[in-house]
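Handout, section B. The chain below has 60 residues.
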Amino acid sequence: MQQTQTAHLPAIAADSSAVMQAVLAMALGLFIVGVVGFSHISAVHNAAHDVRHANAFPCH
């Protein structure tokens, strides 16, 4: 006979985890956009610029 155990997280813990993940994802995205957008390394900036154009995102 196999016994299984399940852990039940409170709804608040599950909701706060999802919110924290969303906030961290947004922070990471803003960091990447900010660093690449203002990068003094032309190869990095030009690569990001080309990706924006390839995805039909207006940048200028």
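Note. Residues 26 and 32 are 10 Å apart (CA to CA). Compare this with the example in section A.
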